[in-house]
Write a structure and sequence with these properties.
Elements: H1 8-20, H2 27-34, H3 39-51, E1 64-73, E2 92-102, E3 105-113, H4 119-129, E4 134-139, E5 150-155, H5 162-165, H6 167-184, H7 192-204, H8 209-222, H9 228-232
Parallel strand pairs: 1-4, 4-5
Antiparallel strand pairs: 1-2, 2-3
Helix pairs in contact: 1-8, 2-3
Length: 238
């Protein structure tokens, strides 16, 4: 809210909609629903709220955690969805994800836009998202062994489909792809991490949407001010 010309009630309505809307809400939808003066105002409002969706004190994933990689289509400058099927990186962005297993189902998740699937990138993701002693269940990718602080449990996929061995992270990836395409028509490359953070925030609070609204306000109150330059600059990758 720092330096904003928008009325306080607009911020509260926008935060409520972004936190509780069943499928998420785009800047275009915010612009129309809140009657804002311009699309730019709506985009900046949504971008600032996304920055408040990562709590600085959030706990790392622990216990048994499924970890895998995927790619996601991104929009080009002229806005058509880019990329095609398969694991080719042209028109696609590499993502690493992790899901904490609770009983027989998924708990919390983490997602990160990474530079590549090298050991450096994957180990950094594991180190920053999991607690010491976590059991990291992965496929047989050679970059995973040696990740610090975890007990590695590799599964060589072979003829078996990956979604059988790592069912929950693949369900997360499937939901992410549908969400990104349905709400944002594929996200922009330079802001991908913010969109991933929004998906993580919503998924981790999927059973408590009204609590998600309070959580978003609480994180926003503690967060440092975000400038226009910070919002419009390309975001770092892992």
């Amino acid at each position: 809210m720092h330096g904003s010309k928008l009325a306080l009630h607009v911020w509260f309505w926008a935060a409520y909609l972004m936190a509780t809307h069943s499928n998420g809400i785009s800047a275009m939808q915010l612009w129309k629903q809140l009657g804002l003066g311009s699309y730019k105002s709506a985009w900046l409002l949504a971008a600032k709220l996304r920055r408040a969706m990562v709590g600085p004190e959030r706990n790392p994933l622990s216990g048994l955690v499924e970890i895998d990689e995927t790619t996601i289509n991104y929009r080009t400058r002229n806005d058509p969805p880019a990329g095609g099927p398969g694991r080719c990186h042209e028109g696609k962005l590499p993502i690493t994800g992790a899901v904490e297993i609770e009983g027989l189902g998924p708990g919390r998740i983490r997602l990160a836009h990474v530079r590549d699937y090298s050991a450096d990138s994957l180990h950094a993701f594991i180190e920053t998202t999991t607690a010491l002693g976590t059991v990291a269940r992965t496929d047989g990718r050679s970059a995973y062994p040696g990740a610090p602080g975890v007990r590695h449990e590799p599964h060589v996929i072979g003829p078996m489909a990956a979604h059988i061995v790592l069912p929950w992270i693949h369900r997360v990836f499937s939901n992410l792809e549908r969400w990104a395409l349905g709400v944002y028509h594929s996200p922009r490359r330079k802001h991908l991490q913010s969109y991933l953070d929004e998906f993580v925030f919503r998924f981790n609070r999927r059973r408590t949407r009204h609590a998600a609204f309070r959580s978003l306000l609480g994180i926003g109150m503690r967060a440092n001010p975000v400038t226009y330059k910070m919002l419009t600059s390309p975001e770092a990758t892992g």
